[in-house]
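Running this now, will post back.
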Amino acid sequence: KSNVLGMGYSDLDGEVAQIVCSALITAYTEYRQNRLSVGKPEGFFEGEIQKLDHDLNMRLSERSQYSTRSGVTDPEGQSRAWGDQLGVLEQRENETSAELAEAQASLTSMREMQQHPEIDLPTLGMPFSNEAALVSLKQKIVEQQTRIANLRERFRDDAPEVVNAQETLETLQALLRREVEARLTMSQSRMGVLRSRLEIYHKDIAALRQKLAGIPQSLRSIDELDAEIKTLRVRYDELAKARDLARITANTTHGFNVVLLNPAGPPVPQNTRDYVRLALAPAFSLVVGIGLAFFLDGLDLTVRTANQAEEYLELPVLASLSDRRNKRG
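Update: finished.
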């Protein structure tokens, strides 16, 4: 198929009309050649794909920075993981609190019993104490007290046997007190360890709760970024498919040629002077004027003569008065 397009321009100045018409033809020819060329659609798609690729990289970088800054990459998964971790820490905190309370109660009981020398100092089941040594030491004290009682039945209190047995008993009791004091010190140290552990649990639980409190905001922000990234990827895929289709169309269809048949020619006047028409115009106007006068006269219903009066009234005219003109000397 071929199409021929004619272009023109009118102006009072002939040279200006020719110059402007030539410029219009040149501009239209270049426009059609650029629009119908093979590289134009491909260049358009490449530019749009580059813009989308740039926007996509910016959104991905923004999401990575947000994840690094907030420490949240998968809000739903991390929320479940942090919830499970929080449950474990709270359980350990409760166990440690119970253990600390038990140790505190044991230490308080041992301190109260220590104020009464007549009561045998217990160890109250401390997990790190050597119960066998304490039991053996207590058994020796009881045996020594029994031996002193037997000696007092046989000897006087100032007898060497009784004095030596009493010194041995005091030595055993001193060892027992020292052992109990050591275990009290160890119990206090253990309580310090439990308190430090509780402080760590408190800090970890507070940090996890703070992270869990920020999950909704992080989830909303990441969802918005993910939605934008998904939209950009869909548009990128659509443009890539359209670019491939344009390449297939360009390689399977014939090319277009735009040919300039004739450049802008010299100006031609549109309204020329016709002397015949100029001569006939007054005569034609006179004829039209006469005909219009007769037409208007035929429309006039004024009665001017006696015959017209008899014709319209259907009565005879008896007399008529003529116009009298005054003569001035």
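Helices lie at 14-36, 39-70, 75-114, 131-154, 160-213, 215-252, 275-298, 306-313. More later if anyone needs it.
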